[in-house]
Structures are given as structure tokens and as C-alpha cells.
């Protein structure tokens, strides 16, 4: 990953390929943001005027490259838009800083070293800029350059090194902020790699092996149930989804513990390594990106690893429900009845509603350990994408306060989310004449129906929330801010902050 350091060097003495400054959108044109005073001085105090003349406004996402004047030891100055100038006594919005830093990193793809002279008023601004810079510098190149002609098929490598100017390398809070940002960004990028890895390589078995290797490296216990153990254990949901595939399913448990922990969390991730829909096959146009259907499991895995690396005082167990949903002679048919791990029977009316089946077993299993709270993360329904769009995940819960907390936490870390209800009247749509329930209900409110299905498998008295990340997990449009094309690592930052808040007893 891109290297990141806090530097005490002045903007006019540092050697780099580019100097990044912030520009805000003032009422009368662009305004140079704090942190860039020395750069502005090198422009004889006329940087804002130059930017104005070039047509820059300071709008969010705007990137303007200009040749550096004599007096700076860099060839290029890159001005990134921060949006509106903050009110008096307020600081720049953290998410605006995170996105601006990400846009700068992306614009500097191929460069070796860049100095960032953005406004760093406090430790949380340091975290935001560091995270943005590291997340924006992400590229998935593992499958490029196969012909060896050109290193990566001509694709430039991400920005290699970032020096943050204006932070205080000896300040305890700033140091911790940057260390935290490095760990979190590295793990978000790991989640992205897992999501982007094609499904012929990232099978359930391969994903489980990654978890085992990482677990050994960082001293976190990983246990894997293979298909034999799943059959023996009665995991009818996970087996029912996975049995149509040549690549058998897995249930992975990754358990981080801290000796002083007083609270425990369980994270449960949907890990469908490829969702063809099964016998209820998805039509062309709906299956090209379905390698992303393990994004929930990727987020759970990456966040537990980040939490372990941060050494948080809380016990966190991650459960990865891994299966490939394929049609074949051994696949579950629409009409089959599965006996779930909980004992409940489920009539499978649509094999494309598979996420809830694997999650149900994992939720029941996770509940056996009586966590203080449980959160599942899943690319669960197209309906949630219709409701909230491509950038916002839905939050459902069996506890209003917990749902509100998660919404606030997501907001705090810069992840867009929205609280959604679990209307009890939608439950009867899943009544089955044959089994205890069906895996499908009314089409209207399909995201909430899926949430109600999951709720049936949450242990008595356990506080639970469900994050439907089907929209934001995989970004198909042009990159923006620190968000690349492909896997985004959605929900990792929210889960990590939830663990931090749980550790400090500060859940609001
Ligand atoms: N993995 C899909 C949901 C999805 C859709 C994720 C778009 C990401 C982007 C899920 O397994 C699915 O197919 N859900 C069905 C459920 C339906 C059959 C009840 C859906 O949403 O159409
Ligand atoms: Mn599906
Ligand atoms: Zn799916």
C-alpha cells in the first residue's frame, strides 16, 4: 500500500512530484484553504486569483493542476476542491477532506511522492485526510499485465508515497490518528481486493484460506467448517445454497478477544462468492457484477482484522457465511424445503433469495455465543438499491436505539446510510403452506421482507442490526473522491467505529 508519513518539512522546502493544496468555494470565488499559506506565498499571494482565472471554483471533487512557481521544490501544484468555506469557528467537514484527499491521490496516479498541505485543524482531520489519501490511492492490478509487455498493461501504479504537512508528528493524538487511519484504510483496501478478485479464484474455500492465513499472522483464532462439517452440524441454509456448486461452502469463525474486554460483538457477513441466482437464474445484465455478493463477508473479515490490529478492548467474532450460488443437477430447486441450523424449515420459492438462507444459519450460530450485540452485513436485495440508490446502505434493527447509533456512527465515519423499518405486516407474506416459512414474500418492500426473514433467526434477547449494502458495495460508475470503480469496502469503517464505541462504552 501507499506509504504515509507526517512531515514537519515546510511546503517550500519539501521535494516531491506534487504539492496538494485545498481550495474552498467562497462567495466571491475560490479561497485557498489553511495549510497552503507557504504555497500561496510562493505565488505572491495570488493563488486564489490564478485558480479563479483557470476557472476553478473550489467545488467538491474539482482538481486543478498548475505549474509550480520558482521557490517551491515541486514541479506541480494540485488544488483540490473542498466545497463551501466553513462557518466562522467551524472546521472543514471531515468527509469533504477525505474525498478531496482521495481525489488528489487519484489525480496523482503514477507519481512517486506527493506532499499534502490540506487543512489539518485537529486529529480527526488528520485521520480523514490520511484515510482519503490512502483509499484514493487504491488500484486493483493483480490481473493486468499478463503479457508482460507493459508492467500493468500500461496502467500506472497508484501514488507511492504521501507526506502530510501541517500535522504534528510528536503529538500523541495526531500520531494515533494517523496510525488508526493506516490500519483502517489498509483493511478497507483488503476488503476491496477480496471483492474485486474474480469468482473463479475467490471460491468459498479460497476465502476461508485467506482468513486462516491472516488469522495466523495476526494471532486471531480462525475456525473453518467445511461441507462435511456443515452437513453434520445441520447447516441446511448454507448447504442448501452451496450444494449446486463445484466449489463447496464454508462457515468461517474469526474470533478476536481482548483480556480486558467487558463487551462482545458478533459480525455476520453474507459471502456469496458468486450469485448466478441458482435454478432461478438471473438474466444477462444482472449477473456480471455478482462476484460482489461476498462484500458483506469481506467487510466483516476486514473489520475484525482492523479491530485486532488496533487492539481494541472488546471481543469481536466475525462469521463469514461462504457459498457459491450455482444452478446444476445438485442445486436446490424452487419448491425444496430446507431444514435450517435453527431447526426451522424453509420452503425455497426462489433460489435467488439465497443470502438470507446462508445468513440465517450464521445468525443462529452466532447467537449461541450470546454477544451483547450482533450486526449482519449483506448485499441482500435489489429492492434496497431501488429504495436508497447506489451510495447509501439501509439499516434495519430489532432495537430503535441501536439502529440510531449505527446510523450516527456511519455518518461520523463518512458512510452514507439510512434507517429502515421492519413492518410486522410484511411477515405474513412469507407464510408457507408446506414449511414453517418461505424464503420470499411480497415484492413491495423486498428489502424489509428480507430483514424480517433474518430477524426470525436472531437469538432471543439479542440486540441486532442488519446492514443491506447492495447499493454501495460495488461502484460501477466513474471513480469519485476516494471511491474507486469496483469493490468499495462499504461498512468496514462503520463496523470498526462501532467496535471502538463499544470498547469505550460510548454507544450513545
Ligand atoms: N445478491 C442479490 C442482491 C443484489 C442485487 C446485490 C443487486 C447487489 C446488487 C440477492 O441475492 C438477490 O438476488 N436478491 C433478490 C431477492 C428476490 C429474489 C426476493 C432480489 O433482490 O431481486
Ligand atoms: Mn441472489
Ligand atoms: Zn445474492
Q: Give the CATH class of the largest domain.
A: Alpha Beta
Q: Write down the CATH topology of the largest domain.
A: Aminopeptidase
Find the count of extended strands (DSSP E, 2+ residues).
Answer: 20
Shape: elongated
Please summarize the sheet with the most strands: 8 strands, mixed
* Structural domain tally: 2
CATH architecture of the largest domain: 3-Layer(aba) Sandwich
Distance between the termini: 34 Å
The parts where pLDDT drops under 50 for at least 5 residues are: none
What compounds sit in this structure?
ligand BES, manganese (II) ion, zinc ion
Give the helix tally. Answer: 14
Overall pLDDT confidence: 97
Provide the CATH superfamily of the largest domain: Zn peptidases
Strand order of the largest sheet: 8-9-11-10-14-18-15-16
Binned, the helix content reads 25-40%
Can you walk me through this structure?
It is a single chain. The protein has 508 residues and is of the alpha/beta class. The chain folds into two domains: 3-165, Leucine Aminopeptidase, subunit E, domain 1; 190-504, Aminopeptidase (3-Layer(aba) Sandwich), CATH 3.40.630.10. Helices cover 33% and strands 21% of the residues. It has 14 helices and 20 strands. It has helices at residues 37-42, 47-53, 94-107, 123-136, 172-196, 204-218, 227-233, 236-242, 295-310, 355-367, 382-388, 400-413, 446-455, 492-503, and strands at residues 3-7, 18-26, 29-32, 63-67, 76-84, 113-117, 161-165, 221-225, 250-256, 264-275, 315-325, 337-339, 345-347, 373-378, 393-397, 417-419, 437-438, 463-468, 474-475, 486-487. The strands form four sheets. The chain has an eight-stranded mixed β-sheet, sandwiched between helices. Strands 1, 2, 3, 4, 5, 6 and 7 form a seven-stranded mixed β-sheet that branches. Strand 12 and strand 13 form a beta hairpin. Helix 6 runs parallel beside helix 9, helix 8 (236-242) runs antiparallel to helix 10 and helix 12 crosses helix 14. The two termini are 34 Å apart. The mean pLDDT is 97. The chain binds ligand BES, manganese (II) ion and zinc ion. Zinc ion binds next to strand 10.
Amino acid at each position: 500500500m501507499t506509504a504515509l508519513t507526517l512531515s514537519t518539512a515546510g511546503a517550500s522546502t519539501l521535494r516531491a512530484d506534487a504539492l496538494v493544496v485545498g481550495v474552498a468555494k467562497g462567495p466571491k470565488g475560490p479561497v485557498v484553504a489553511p495549510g497552503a499559506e507557504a504555497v500561496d506565498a510562493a505565488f505572491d499571494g495570488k493563488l486564489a486569483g490564478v485558480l479563479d482565472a483557470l476557472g476553478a471554483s473550489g467545488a467538491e471533487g474539482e482538481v486543478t493542476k498548475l505549474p509550480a512557481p520558482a521557490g517551491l521544490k515541486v514541479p506541480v501544484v494540485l488544488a483540490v476542491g473542498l466545497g463551501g468555506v466553513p462557518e466562522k469557528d467551524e472546521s472543514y467537514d471531515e468527509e469533504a477532506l477525505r474525498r478531496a484527499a482521495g481525489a488528489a491521490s487519484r489525480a496523482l496516479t503514477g507519481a512517486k511522492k506527493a506532499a499534502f498541505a490540506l487543512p489539518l485543524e485537529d486529529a480527526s482531520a488528520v485521520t480523514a485526510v490520511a484515510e482519503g489519501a490512502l483509499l484514493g490511492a487504491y488500484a486493483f492490478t493483480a490481473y493486468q499485465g499478463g503479457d508482460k509487455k507493459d508492467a500493468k498493461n500500461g496502467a500506472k501504479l497508484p501514488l507511492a508515497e504521501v507526506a502530510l504537512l501541517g500535522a504534528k508528528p510528536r503529538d500523541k493524538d495526531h500520531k494515533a490518528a494517523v496510525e488508526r487511519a493506516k490500519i483502517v484504510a489498509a483493511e478497507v483496501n483488503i476488503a476491496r481486493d477480496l471483492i474485486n478478485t474474480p469468482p473463479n479464484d475467490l471460491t468459498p474455500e479460497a476465502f476461508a484460506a485467506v482468513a486462516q492465513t491472516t488469522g495466523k499472522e495476526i494471532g486471531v483464532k480462525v475456525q473453518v467448517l467445511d461441507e462435511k462439517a456443515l452437513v453434520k452440524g445441520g447447516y441446511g441454509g448454507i448447504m442448501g445454497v452451496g450444494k449446486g456448486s463445484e466449489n463447496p461452502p464454508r462457515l468461517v469463525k474469526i474470533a478476536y478477544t481482548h483480556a480486558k474486554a467487558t463487551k462482545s460483538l458478533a459480525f455476520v457477513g453474507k459471502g456469496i462468492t458468486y450469485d448466478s441466482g441458482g435454478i432461478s437464474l438471473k438474466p444477462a445484465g444482472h449477473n456480471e457484477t455478482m462476484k460482489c455478493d461476498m462484500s458483506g463477508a469481506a467487510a466483516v473479515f476486514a473489520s475484525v482484522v482492523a479491530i485486532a490490529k488496533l487492539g481494541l478492548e472488546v471481543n469481536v467474532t466475525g462469521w463469514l457465511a461462504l457459498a457459491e450460488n450455482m444452478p446444476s443437477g445438485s442445486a436446490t430447486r424452487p419448491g425444496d424445503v430446507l431444514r435450517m441450523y435453527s431447526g426451522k424449515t424453509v420452503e425455497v420459492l426462489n433460489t435467488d433469495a439465497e443470502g438470507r438462507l446462508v445468513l440465517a444459519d450464521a445468525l443462529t450460530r452466532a447467537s449461541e455465543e450470546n454477544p451483547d450485540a450482533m450486526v449482519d452485513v449483506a448485499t441482500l436485495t435489489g429492492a434496497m438499491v431501488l429504495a436508497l440508490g447506489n451510495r447509501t446502505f439501509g439499516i434495519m434493527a430489532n432495537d430503535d436505539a441501536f439502529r440510531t447509533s449505527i446510523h450516527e456512527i456511519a455518518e461520523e465515519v463518512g458512510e452514507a446510510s439510512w434507517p429502515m423499518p421492519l413492518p410486522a405486516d410484511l411477515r405474513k407474506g412469507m407464510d408457507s403452506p408446506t414449511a414453517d416459512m418461505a424464503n420470499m414474500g411480497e415484492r413491495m418492500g423486498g428489502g424489509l421482507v428480507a430483514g424480517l426473514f433474518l430477524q426470525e433467526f436472531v437469538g432471543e434477547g439479542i440486540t441486532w442490526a442488519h446492514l443491506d449494502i447492495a447499493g454501495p458495495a460495488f461502484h460501477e460508475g466513474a471513480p469519485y473522491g476516494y471511491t474507486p470503480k469496483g469493490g468499495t469496502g462499504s461498512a468496514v469503517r462503520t463496523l470498526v467505529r462501532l467496535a471502538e464505541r463499544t470498547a469505550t462504552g460510548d454507544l450513545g
